[in-house]
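We give its fold:
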Amino acid sequence: MSEPSIIFNDVNERQGSFLRRTLVMGGFTALGVAALTARLGQLQVVQAQEYTTLASNNQFNYRLVPPPRGIIKDRNGTIIAGNRPSFRVLVVRDETKDLDQTLDLLGQLLPDTLERRRSIIRDVNAAPRFSPVPVKSDLNWEEFARVNLYANELPGVMADMHEARYYPFGGSFAHVIGYVAKVSDRDIKSIRDAGEEPPAILYNPGFRIGRQGVEKALDKELRGEAGGNRVEVDARGRVVGEDVENSRPAIHGKEVVLTLDADVQNRALEVFGEESGGCVVMDVRNGDILCMVSAPSFDPNLFVSGVPSNVYNALRDYERKPLLDKAIYGSFPPGSTFKMTTALALLDAGVDPSERVNCTGGYRYGNRTFRCWKRGGHGAMDMHNAIKNSCDTYFYHLCNRAGVDRIARVAEDLGFHQVYEIGIAGQSRGTMPSTRWKADYARRTKAKHPDAGKWYPGETLSVAIGQGAIETTALQLAVMTSRLAHGRKAITPRLIKSVGGVERPSGAAAGDMPFSEEHLNIVRAGMQAVANDVTGTAYRASQLGLGDIQMAGKTGTAQSRDYGSGSRGPRDAVWTRRDHALFVAFAPHDAPRYAIALIIQHAPAGGSADAAPRAREIMKTVLLKDPDMRARIERPLPPEPTGPLTEDEANFGAAPVVEEAPAPAATPAPRRAEPLTATTGPRPYMAEPPQ
């Protein structure tokens, strides 16, 4: 059998096929070598510098360093929000072989981390790559040493020291200062909704931003500027060294100075005890707020590292609402502290202050009897005595001569129904009833009754004594008292004194008051009699015991609900069904310097028994801290006379004589008011209890 053979018709055909394949493969090879050579030339010659930089960036990384937060001081330089050193342990997800195993080992060193394991894993997974995530802060020295001892056996775990926010006075400044907390998704979203790009530092797991109060209002100023540490990393991204020369230090946040006084603030929270309410103290001369406290309070230090849910729920659900700032957010009926406003409106309407109204214990209007707090009545009352004795009947009888719109206008001139630029947003504006207000309210609520938006004169009676729909805040009451005391300027409050060394405008830079000095003197004389006349409603509770320095003030007890035929609030054992107690005052009465407004929510008794004594103690602290007032208290008595006295010398130091119309004969002795209530009508009214 013969072997197969290949037969070429052309002797050159085999040789030509080989040459074509060789040329094609050789051409492709040449092109590949040329492309590779060109690319190597581009990388090593043309782009050499660019790739050198990229290689360096792979070797060295920048890690953002949170800046120290700016400190907050009071008017005397006392730190009320600062920073303190804190040991903490951190975990870097990308440096751990097994996160669960690492957390198990860490749990043997720090057992309490096991309780927060789920939240730790959530934070670690949400953090950027190679970003350290705090697992536990405020380690004691024993815990810190233990973690460092076993650090080599815990890949991705490190311990360091950083600056944590600290509030040295705890709850005294909790509401006005606020607190700091971790950045949430809601914070990022709100920044983007405002058309801004969130700074990179906000994604750092250890960074904190302001929550509430001044911390939130001035967060950008207090935040500072983030720095960067240039660290050398290995191929796995682990830190092996630090380039100190090329690192950038963080810039400290700006220093903020407030007008508050730490001693006054602490004393105010102390005198509240277990009661709920708010207090504001202002400097009458320039509007500086020396005290703005809300009670009960809470410790803001709990929120810095994250407050446990059970603690937060307890604070949130407590009926006295410790998380609510009652000085500027909580609104209450002003009660009889509003009567000075009504008196000014009556004077503006042309009412003669010497005109007398006979108080027999109530005032009949239509088919309803409006009771005065004193069942037997006060007898004949002019304006001075009506303020001094807090006679409801006097204001019932005359209020419609001024009308609700005039009362509302005077109230706004005195500071009610206003929001003030003190640096904290979200203040309650309160409510100031008027004919327009009621019409707007009926329209908003789509009331079906055709007369729902009509104002009736009978409704003015409740407004005249600070009841009905009227609501105000402690800050607004303090502004009212400051303006009455100053008399010439519409003083506005100031809380932030300076930011970064730049002074903020004074509250004295305000417009003039629209009231005559004569009218203001009548009202101030009534307030002086409240606190210093032995028959005044706050005489016992208003004696400062500081030499010749005396207060001028006004008590108030505001009804918190319609009692129907039941008993009044202060006698009710249930806290939520008691009346509110109020007191406003300024001192010294002969040269006003400081004004105070204090509200106790659901007080045990009333304005004179609960609010006035507390306001007196706070005012004493304010006066004793003033060098001029202390010098006045400590000045020596005048020398004994050695010869006949002149008329002026004989009257030196005597109380000014207030000419009053003769009191009615045989008026009944003061006594506690019995439970009082309106006979008919849908709205609650104010029946002032004994002061």
